[in-house]
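Here is a protein:
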Amino acid sequence: MNVVFLHGLGQSPSSWNETISCLPEDIKAYCPNLFDFSTDRAITYKNIYLSFEEYVDKFSEPVTICGISFGAVLALNYCINHVEKVQSLILIAPQYKMPRLLLKFQNIIFRIMPEKSFWGSGIKKQDMIHLTSSMVTLNFEQDLGNILCPTLIICGERDLANVKAAKALAKNIYNAKLCIIDNAGHEINIAASKKLANAMSGFL
């Protein structure tokens, strides 16, 4: 089984290492660096998404896509547009309608943070501000009915910013299952990798 793992903002492909190590051996994992997709394009949500489309198109058969946070948004978007290419979907700490006030507040914080605070994120400070600003109008609420593949929605119990959206997605996506992981926060793939892998293994 081919599984494409999409990291979140402030993460890298290696953020999946512990989770993948706990998954069944017959899973073939692909972990692209989402920010490498935009080496010849401005770093905006649209450009990263278009590059991700090109990446998945190279697979000859449908794939399972697993994304966390920003990666979950990309995975959701892709599945809505290319249902025939997605065997199954795993959305971790997802949003389907961007929380505009939260994103705008986040951008204000980004602007006053020093450049060195972004060194571990894979992109520069200005690129991060540009990227999150380009996501403000995203809203997939009317398109959730397009998703017909088996879908697992996972969220940490303490991830208060995303639990509500996770529950709403589980109600509005056909054939979706919700898993709330006890005592876990937002970056489950790093802080609760074994619990995450257990939840995913049963689904896969």
Notes: The longest strand covers residues 86-92. The first helix runs from residue 17 to 21. The chain is about 40% helix and 15% strand.
